[in-house]
Design brief:
alpha/beta; Aldehyde Dehydrogenase, Chain A, domain 1; seven-stranded mixed β-sheet; about 500 residues
């Protein structure tokens, strides 16, 4: 055991060791000798205790007026503003993303705090005229109960905020299992809520593996909502478990996002966008630009310029603000990137930049990989079809707009897409024809804002959305209310003909 702090489970407002007494280490992916903390290695016993605490807290939390719940979120948002830099630095240590991106991750949680707090006075329903005289009718939102949140490591504060805050504002209670690679950011987020006056048991944290914590959490009979972000493979399993228990299930899964560049595009802008979209967060975004679909007239020039600028990107620990690309999250993810580089070369794609892990000198204790670009990729290669989640960009050449759209849509996912063009007609056709949940014009495939719905089509999810007002649908149910003040029995559809 190192001198790193020990973080326990938060259950019912108090801190508890795992029932097993075991812990696991959270290490810096840029320097594995840096132990950020030791976290409870929990199991089903801890899950049962956390769900019981959340269920008990729900009885009173659901009755707190939504504007009063919002006041807690407003206070928590202000606390997070004050703690932003410290939270960002801890995030860079545990996740690896460069510091400016970690600051952006925390800012997204701040934005969501204030946005969802605003919804505390805007949980709108409907009032409609009745077909009967002297009768009033309306619809209202109602909470569901205990929500299980299972969150990923790539946006360790932003994504938990997308799930937790709408759950709270609609009157639910929460048990969250953060990713084992990045649990500390969730602790920081929840600490702000606790310090802002959130009652005990309304949010509970249980750390540990998916098999020992995630599985029993989503199967618990008192859990009414499962919100999961992760791989499509695991997401399909979550969907089946949720269906067995008739639970609300929200899935945010994989992506293989295309950026189209037409002959008339501003190439300076396109190069800048492709670099940011492909190598921001080391390519570890579900919205990362992983396919560059380029019209033949500009393909050679764009490829050459991208390769030169990608090779010049500085790779290294994220706390050094001179660095532009951080590490992969862990050894396993680095090995996946290396494997796909070998797959690309075996498939006949042309390596034009990068292609190797960095293991010597200053990189020896981290999980670093060169920004990598393949050209001459065809639409059916594995490089063009499968999510890599690393700093690998595939360039596919097409002849015209119609082929570009066809190639863009020809993958199992449908999260984000973009097109660079000066032709307004082509831009509007792309907005219509790209079958993704998010479309950008003259911008890369990353950069969503929290007040619009976030999510995708096909293998990217199950139709629900995070962020925006639409996320409220996941964490609430509709109740229709009819008030007859006529003093007599009125039979709808019978007495009004």
């Amino acid at each position: 055991m190192s001198d790193a702090p020990v973080y326990r489970n938060l259950i019912g407002g108090t801190w508890h060791d795992a029932a097993s007494g075991a812990t696991f280490a959270n290490r810096n992916p840029a320097d594995t000798a840096d132990v950020i903390g030791h976290f409870a290695d929990s199991d089903e016993r801890d899950v049962v205790a956390a769900v019981a605490a959340a269920q008990q807290a729900y009885a009173s939390w659901r009755l707190v007026p939504a504007p009063k719940r919002a006041e807690i979120l407003y206070r928590a948002g202000q606390l997070l503003i004050e703690r932003k830099e410290a939270c960002a630095r801890d995030m860079t240590r545990e996740m690896g993303k460069v510091l400016k991106e970690a600051r952006g991750d925390v800012q997204e949680a701040i934005d969501m705090m204030f946005f969802m707090a605003g919804e505390g006075r805007r949980l709108h329903g409907q009032t409609t005229p009745s077909e009967m005289p002297n009768k009033f009718q309306m619809s209202v939102r109602q909470p569901l109960g205990v929500c299980a949140l299972i969150t990923p490591w790539n946006f360790p504060m932003a994504i938990p905020s997308w799930k937790m805050l709408p759950a709270l504002i609609t009157g639910n209670t929460v048990v969250i299992k953060p990713a084992s690679d990045t649990p500390l950011s969730v602790y920081h987020l929840v600490q702000c809520l606790t310090d802002a006056g959130l009652p005990p048991g309304v949010v509970n944290i249980v750390t540990g593996s998916g098999s020992k914590v995630g599985e029993p959490l989503m199967r618990h009979p008192d859990v009414k909502v499962i919100s999961f972000t992760g791989s499509t493979e695991i997401g399909s399993r979550v969907a089946r478990v949720g269906a067995e228990g008739m639970k609300h299930v929200s899935l945010e899964l994989g992506g293989k996002n295309p950026m189209i560049v037409m002959n008339d595009a501003d190439l300076d802008l396109a190069v800048e966008g492709a670099l940011w979209g492909a190598f921001g967060t080391t390519g570890q975004r579900c919205t990362a630009t992983s396919r560059l679909i380029v019209q033949r007239g500009v393909a050679a020039e764009l490829t050459a310029r991208l390769a030169a600028q990608a090779a010049a990107l500085t790779v290294g620990p994220g706390l050094d603000e001179r660095n532009q690309v951080g590490p992969s999250i862990n050894q396993g993810q680095l090995e996946i990137v290396e494997r796909y580089v070998q797959i690309g070369m075996a498939e006949g794609a042309r390596l034009v930049c990068g292609g190797a892990a960095l293991r010597d000198g200053p990189y020896a204790r981290g999980f670093f990989h060169q920004p990598t670009i393949f050209a001459d990729v065809t639409r059916h290669m594995r490089l063009a079809q499968e999510e890599i989640f690393g700093p690998v960009l595939s360039i596919i050449t097409v002849e015209d707009f119609d082929e570009a759209i066809d190639v863009a849509n020809d993958v199992p996912y449908g999260l984000s897409s973009s097109i660079y063009t000066r032709d307004v007609n082509a831009a509007f056709r792309a907005m219509r024809d790209l079958y993704t949940g998010i479309v950008y014009i003259n911008a890369p495939t990353i950069g969503a804002e929290i007040h619009l719905p976030f999510g995708g089509t096909k293998g990217t999810g199950n139709g629900h959305r995070e962020a925006g007002q639409q996320v409220l649908e996941v964490f609430s149910e509709w109740k229709s209310v009819y008030v007859d003040f006529s003093g007599s029995l009125q039979r709808a559809q019978i007495d009004n003909n």
